[in-house]
Design goal:
The chain has about 270 residues and is α/β, with parallel strands linked by helices. The chain contains eleven helices and nine strands. The strands form two sheets. It has a six-stranded parallel beta sheet with strand order 3-2-1-7-8-9, with helices on both faces. The structure holds nicotinamide-adenine-dinucleotide.
Length: about 270
Amino acid sequence: MANDPDPTDPADPADPAIAEARALLADASDVVVLTGAGISTESGIPDFRGPAGVWTKDPAAEKRAHIDVYRSDPDVRRGAWQQRLRTADAPAWEPNAGHHALVELERRGRLHTLITQNIDSLHHAAGSDPDRIVEVHGHGREVVCLACEMRAPMARALDRVRAGEVDPPCRACGGILKAATISFGQNLVEADLERAFRAAAEADLFLAIGSTLSVYPVAETVPIALRSGTPLIIVNADPTPFDAYAEVVVRGRIGEVLPAIVGTAS
Ligand code: NAD
C-alpha cells in the first residue's frame, strides 16, 4: 500500500501504512534492515539518485565515480584527496532520528543484521553494534592500496596530504591509495556479500530504508528475502522497483516515519 510520495509531509501516526508496518514489526524477532543513502540525507549528506541527489544534479559525476577513472587520472585522485580533507575538517555529520530508531530496534533484541550501502559510518556513530552491521560498500574510516590491498587509517593518510603529498602512494608498495569504499567497477568483499545474503535468507521481516534498491548485487537481498516468504517493508520517499512486492510501502521523511514505525517517536 503506497501513500502519496511527498517526503515533506510530517509523519502521521494515523497513516495506515505506518500502522501496518508497526504491526509487522511487533510480530518479528529477526528483522534484517537494508539502509541506503536516503537515511542519511536528513543528517546533511546528499544521496545520489534522489531528487536533490549528487548524480541527479550532475550526471557526469556518476562517470567520474568509476574506479577506472580514479586509477587512470591523477587529477581525479588529487581532487578526491582534497574532498576527503574538506570532509574531515568540516563539522562531523551527526546521526539522525532514523539511525537512532534502528539502535532502539536492536536494543529490543529484534535486529538480526543491519546491512548498509552507506559509507558514512553514521550507524556506528548512532551506537548500533558494529558486529551487526555489514557495510557492503565499505567505509571511509580507512584507506586501501589498490595494488597490495594494505589498509591504514584514513586519518594518517590525510595527515600526509596536509603535509604536502597531493596523492599519497602506498608506503608498502607505492600503489594507489583510495578510501576503503567500493567504487563502481570494483568488486565487493565476498565475505560481506555472503553475510548480507545469508541474513536476508534468515530474516523474518525485511526492512528496506532510503534506497532506490537499484544497486546490485546488494539489491539482490530483497528478492532473496521475498523467495523465503519474508514480508518486505519499504520506507522511501520515491518509488522503487520492489514496491509491488512489498507488504507495505511507507512514504515520507525517514527521520519522522521510522521512529513512528519503531515506536520511538515523541
Ligand atoms: P540512492 O541515492 O540511489 O537513493 C536514495 C533514495 O532515498 C531515493 O529514492 C530518495 O528518494 C530516498 N530518500 C532520500 N532522502 C530521503 C528521506 N529523508 N526520506 C525518505 N526517503 C529519502 O541511494 P542508494 O540506493 O543507497 O544507492 C546509492 C549508492 O551510493 C549506495 O550504494 C551508497 O554506497 C552510495 N552513497 C552513500 C552515501 C552515504 O554514505 N551517506 C551517500 C550517497 C551515496
